[in-house]
């Protein structure tokens, strides 16, 4: 049997039934990587010897009667997570030899759940791109079209899953870094509610792996089915055992509904600051039609929806103020000077990025106050709706573009060019207020490229968009292997 594209859930059942061993699954996954990854370049740091040893240990544990959620399941891990004995570089050449001594919290949780880690997956430089390429490990290609990006910054993980390199992966998201690669590669991903999953050990080299509460950023699961997302989220969820975890256990509420016809869904396909390409619009429509056909209440407008333009600018300010804090002083001062010279009437997203970089602490506090108003607006909206369906980016995967200055890049939307970074506005819709969002595949573009959408849910009600994703998978289909 071909095991590489089966779900983690089915693999776990097969292992429990004695139909296959973890050693067999791991050897088959490694063989596939060695055969196919030269063209994809998803696995940047293989760890095959330790994977085989972990698989053997999993088989021994199974023989002793042990049963854990991921016992014996081959998985991959985004390069940005610390794994003891393997390099963590974030694609930055000066740190190519940085090798942590301890596992990140989420790697420890994977291993405790019995997972077999095959290796690490590729990322962009500093995790700061919508593509995955760097000078150390090269470029990760989209499995559907090698001339196009797999997305970023969890692009290596998405490409690995689409190629059958392991059943699950873990990534991270601050600007769509879980959702965009899922959309581009035709898989599933879930951006958890801000603060739901501990991120210690997902830090740039050579920063110490200390417990922090990052603004905007989350870690989360990637899979080939919605049910597998839930399986992996249950392993990942929970506060850092050094901080909030001392006193708190996480118990997520159940999904609001179990049947499609009980859901109330707001569908969005237009953004005031960037158009939606025809292929993505068709994907949103397909989901809306499936919801309506299944008896769900579907609306396309609501006065409760927070202002999308204001949300995009606020997200941009918060995101780039965080980035600016890590810039070299000379570059930071140069950008601050440019921001000071902006025309007061310039309300473009380019201007918002510059202003965000130049934020003072006073500016950030005011932005955070306005974010709380948006969060309250979303709470009100979710008294009337259970989920929001919308794009992840305006287009399917685009051709590789390695221009070193992202401000000079352009994104083609149905033949018209727009600033490259403007495509982040849809990802920011859930990120800025810290909402959970599940990326699901919806089918293919006319060119045969995967197209996905995101399902945004209420804060800490992650099981609601995940359940809706599962129901839509049954209705419109899900992952398909690249042909």
From TrEMBL:
Keywords assigned: Hydrolase
InterPro entries from the UniProt entry: Amidase_CS, Amidase_dom, AS_sf, FAAH2
PANTHER family: FATTY-ACID AMIDE HYDROLASE (PTHR43372), FATTY-ACID AMIDE HYDROLASE 2 (PTHR43372:SF4)
Hydrolase in keyword set: yes
Name used for this protein in its record: Amidase
An example molecular function term from Gene Ontology annotations: amidase activity
EC number of the protein: 3.5.1.4
Amidase domain location: 24-464
SUPFAM superfamilies reported for this sequence: Amidase signature (AS) enzymes
Gene3D superfamilies: Amidase signature (AS) domain
Enzyme class: hydrolase
